[in-house]
Specification:
Elements (H helix, E strand, L loop, with lengths): L2 H51 L6 H10 L30 H12 L7 H8 L1 H33 L6 H10 L4 H4 L2 H38 L1 H6 L3 H16 L8 H25 L12 H15 L2 H9 L7 H27 L16 H33 L7 H22 L3 H10 L1 H17 L13 H27 L1
Helix pairs in contact: 1-2, 3-13, 3-14, 4-5, 4-12, 4-14, 5-6, 5-12, 5-13, 5-14, 5-18, 6-8, 6-18, 8-10, 8-15, 8-16, 8-17, 8-18, 10-15, 10-16, 11-14, 11-15, 12-17, 12-19, 17-19, 18-19
Length: about 500
């Protein structure tokens, strides 16, 4: 071999060696990358689970996801062992916590709404003294179911290592961690049912406020205009008229701009109610002229309006979640429900005593229109109810926006206003379709509220305390029996409403 060939061979070998080394390095990198990916895949779930369960305050969705990742046959007890004793109150990091007086005020505000303006008509259905007795019975059961929710939630906080729960959250975890294994897989369905009934109730409340505003506006305009009184336009026309200002108010995306006006509105409505009671006492006749009992169907109608007037189940857990001392919630219920019972009883009792069989909702419509002051108060009443409508509109819209808002990441403000406007139009369409205020209030009180107040809370307590309260070595579970009676009572009211509603058509 000549020297020239040897030089060419050396140059070729020198050129091929870096390429071979580069290929070997690439193969080694690919192998190590595959090993890392396999190791990452095998430990991904463990790392995610460890990361999520190490925190004290998890969201409910994280908790449920962690339990699914454990591949258990059913939701089991939360395995958190960071601390033996979990203080849920210490884990709440709120900017502002309410004391007992503030919490009582919030509970009273959540209970008293549009229903109090129709209690006098409810008394007309059942009779004077029958209505008083039924009001006390319903308020007692309602207070007990409120305490059911709070005690069950406070029992679940340490178990789940969660500092707070909403109503749908509590129902979901009660079913998911309950003793009935066949029911655990339906925990999401129960959550959606709670969301649906709360949404249904608040949409109905918005419809009721819109009808009340229309009735008030109709009464005032016909009192000051003879031509409108002769025309006697249907209330549906006035519902269409007020849709435009209500739509404009509901496009406000920040609740902080509405909250101060809402406080003024509530105060003004209370003043109008007291003024109306003053006029009712001036017209009151012999109290023996008012029947004490009327009919069973009338009592069922009364139950619907009364439940709607005192319902505070939806605000129970939000009030408890923001208390400084949540273990004293029973004090809030005791004082708050006493104020609620007194308010609706006074309004209904004196309203029916004063106007008898001529009762019409809202109660403020009975103000005499011969003086200037009542006319001004009626106009302001319609304006204040519009603010209250916008505040109540927030609850059902947030439920809807929670599910559909996640699909609109871009131009989120624009799409939120589009859906707000659509929601207001749908509420208006329902109000136009069912403009009878009392029938709508009876239906809401006897259908969605029965499930929220008399069916779900006993179910939650039964699931949470199944293994705790037993008598006679587990043969009789007294809480289960008591809860079954409450559920049966709720179903009786709801079923009887179908008969009463059919008679009213």
């Amino acid at each position: 071999m000549s020297s020239t060939e040897r030089d060419e061979r050396r140059e070729q070998q020198a050129h091929e060696e870096p390429q071979e080394n580069q290929e070997i390095q690439e193969q080694q990198q690919n192998v190590s990358q595959e090993q890392r990916e396999e190791e990452g895949t095998s430990s991904k779930r463990e790392r995610t689970l460890e990361r999520k369960t190490s925190a004290y305050s998890l969201s409910l969705s994280q908790y449920m996801e962690c339990m699914e990742m454990r591949e258990s046959t059913g939701y089991q007890v939360y395995p958190g062992t960071e601390r033996e004793d979990y203080d849920f109150n210490a884990e709440r990091f709120g900017v502002y916590s309410t004391n007992l007086i503030e919490s009582t005020a919030h509970l009273v505000k959540g209970c008293l709404g549009a229903g109090i303006l129709s209690m006098h008509e409810a008394y007309m259905f059942a009779g004077l003294w029958t209505s008083v007795i039924v009001t006390i019975i319903l308020a007692t059961i309602m207070s007990h179911t409120m305490m059911m929710l709070v005690k069950s939630a406070q029992k679940m906080y340490p178990l789940l290592r969660l500092p707070r729960l909403t109503y749908p959250d509590l129902l979901e975890v009660a079913v998911a961690t309950g003793p009935w294994k066949g029911l655990r897989c339906f925990s999401k369905c129960f959550r959606y049912a709670a969301d649906f009934f709360l949404f249904f109730q608040m949409c109905g409340t918005c419809c009721i406020y819109e009808i009340m505003i229309a009735n008030t506006l109709k009464g005032v305009l016909e009192a000051v205009s003879d031509s409108l009184q002769e025309s006697n336009y249907d209330v549906r026309i006035y519902i269409l008229i007020i849709t435009v200002p209500l739509l404009a108010i509901c496009l406000i995306r920040s609740l902080k701009y509405l909250a101060p006006f809402a406080m003024v509105a509530d105060t003004f409505v209370a003043i109008c109610v007291l003024t109306t009671i003053y006029y009712s006492l001036k017209q009151a006749q012999n109290i023996s002229d008012r029947p004490a009992w009327k009919s069973f169907s009338g009592v069922i109608r009364f139950c619907g309006i009364c439940l709607y007037s005192m319902d505070g189940i939806g605000v129970t857990l939000p009030v408890e979640n923001n208390m400084e001392r949540p273990r004293y919630f029973y004090v809030v219920v005791a004082y708050g429900m006493t104020i609620v019972i007194t308010s609706i009883t006074i309004t209904g009792f004196f309203g029916y005593w004063g106007w008898g069989e001529e009762c019409t909702s809202p109660v403020t419509i009975h103000m005499p229109m011969t003086d200037t002051l009542p006319i001004i108060l009626q106009f302001l009443m319609a304006a204040m109810l519009s603010i209250t409508f916008a505040v109540n509109f927030w609850v059902p819209f947030r439920v809807v926006w929670h599910y559909i808002g996640r699909k609109y990441k871009r131009n989120r403000c624009f799409w939120e206003r589009i859906f707000r406007a659509t929601h207001v139009i749908l509420i208006t369409a329902i109000a136009i379709t069912f403009p009878h205020l009392i029938q709508l209030m009876i239906f809401i009180g006897n259908f969605p509220l029965v499930f929220i107040a008399f069916v779900f809370p006993p179910l939650i307590e039964s699931l949470v305390t199944w293994k705790d309260d037993t008598l006679f070595k587990g043969v009789v579970r007294w809480r289960i029996v008591k809860n079954c009676i409450i559920i049966l009572f709720g179903f009786t009211i709801s079923t009887s409403n179908l008969v009463a509603y059919g008679e009213g058509l």
